Amino acid sequence: MKHRILLVDDEPDILEFVGYNLLKAGYEVFTARDGAEGLRMAVEHRPHLILLDRMMPVMDGVETCRRIREQEGLSQVMVVFLSALGEEEQQIEGFDAGADDYIPKPIRMKVLMSRVAAILKRVAADGSLRIDRERHLVYLDGRPLPLPRKEFALLALLSSEPGRLFSREEIYARVWGTEVVVGDRTIDVHVRKLRQKLGDHYISTVKGLGYKFQN
After folding, report:
1. How far is CA 170 from CA 177, 178, 184, 213, in A?
2. In the chain, what are the domains?
3. pTM over 0.85
C-alpha cells in the first residue's frame, strides 16, 4: 500500500510542484488550498502524513493542526509544518499545536523528498498500524498498543523493510545482539505474542528461513 500524503498550502505553485514530486516518488497525494479544506480532506482520506503551511486563509496552519489532533482517528497522523515562518518561537508554537516536525521554506526538493522519506519510516504503510520508532510507540487503529522492549524492537526491524525476508540469524543479531545467548524458540515466542496483539496478517513465516512484514 502506498503512503498517503496530504499537502495543504494556499500557493498553487507549491501544490503543483511539491505534489508532482511526491507523486513521482510513488506517494498517493491529495491537496488542499486552506486549512478548513485540509481538515475535511484529512478526515476523508486519512493520510499517513500531512505537510501543512502556516499562513493560509479560512483557517491557519496552527489552528488546523490543533483541529486535526482533536479528530477521532487523526490524532496519530504525522503532521509536519512546511512553512516560511521558521523562527524558533514559530516552530515552538507549531510543536505546541501537535506537529511532529517542522521544515522551514525554502528547501531544495531533493532534501524535502529525503525528509519526507525519513519521516515516513516511522510509519508502517498500513493505515491501521503506526509505528513511531523515535518515541518507541505503536498505535493500532488509532489506539496505543503497549509492547515490551524486545517485541517492539522485533516489530520495528521487520517493518523497516516490508516484504523483505529477515533470516533468524539476522534477527537474533540485530534484536538480541551477538553477545546474548537465547533459546532456539525465542523468536517464535515473540512473533506469536505480536500476532496475538496485532493479528496474524502483519508477520508471515517463511518456513526454515525467517520472517517478513506484510503491508
Report:
1. 9, 10, 14, 15
2. 4-120 (3.40.50.2300), 129-213 (1.10.10.10)
3. no
